[in-house]
């Protein structure tokens, strides 16, 4: 069983990122301990409160009292990159991301690739989302589990000669589970990944000056490159 923690980042409602942070269920407890140890490290090195929610865009913008002293933007950028390196170096996670100007398209593409990858590995997936859109996300997943039309890359599906084929989310089990991001280290990590991709795909000068436009590349070791071998960045980003 895989646990997939999914979060979104967006740019003024014109560009959308969805990222899934994937953990093997049998390694969840060990992985959680590793994350807690990492948060203790951030406390010891930077003074960041262990129980403090780290919300990516607020963190990068210098907002919020996250420590026992002010942490300025350059140090926050250093910490942000450190978080992504932890995800990659811990060898506990896989990261899968999609991006598009159409929010629903980005969402459905990620779900389809996640389901297809799970099928290939003979795994099931339990989905975790941040709280806030429970009804809408549950409705989408339930619909895709029953009827999920997908266009053929080649114009028509073999054996049917039709442009569309329904491929339900058969390996995404149960309704999604919604977690308060304040109480979920994993949702917070997924948020950092999504924001890093947003700033790489849609850079802004103030963040690029601090290196945010290249931070997503830290995740190359744990990216599911097979999800899109045509990705020009070589990281499997679904487009």
From TrEMBL:
Q: What is this protein called?
A: DUF3800 domain-containing protein
């Amino acid at each position: 069983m895989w646990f997939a923690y999914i979060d979104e980042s967006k740019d003024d409602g014109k560009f959308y990122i969805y990222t899934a942070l994937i953990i093997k269920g049998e390694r969840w407890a060990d992985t959680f301990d590793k994350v807690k140890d990492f948060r203790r490290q951030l406390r010891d090195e930077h003074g960041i409160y262990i129980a403090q929610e780290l919300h990516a865009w607020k963190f990068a913008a210098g907002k919020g009292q996250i420590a026992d002293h002010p942490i300025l933007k350059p140090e926050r950028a250093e910490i942000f990159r450190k978080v992504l390196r932890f995800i990659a170096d811990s060898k506990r996670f896989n990261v899968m991301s999609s991006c598009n100007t159409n929010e629903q398209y980005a969402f459905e593409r990620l779900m389809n690739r996640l389901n297809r990858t799970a099928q290939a590995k003979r795994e099931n997936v339990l989905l975790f989302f941040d709280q806030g859109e429970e009804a809408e996300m549950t409705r989408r997943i339930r619909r895709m589990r029953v009827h999920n039309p997908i266009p053929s890359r080649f114009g028509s599906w073999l054996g049917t000669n039709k442009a569309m084929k329904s491929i339900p989310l058969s390996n995404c089990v149960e309704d999604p589970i919604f977690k308060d991001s304040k109480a979920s280290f994993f949702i917070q990590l997924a948020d950092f990944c999504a924001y890093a991709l947003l700033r790489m795909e849609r850079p802004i000068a103030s963040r690029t000056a601090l290196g945010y436009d290249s931070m997503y590349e830290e995740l190359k070791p744990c990216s599911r490159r097979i999800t899109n071998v045509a990705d020009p960045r070589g990281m499997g980003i679904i487009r």
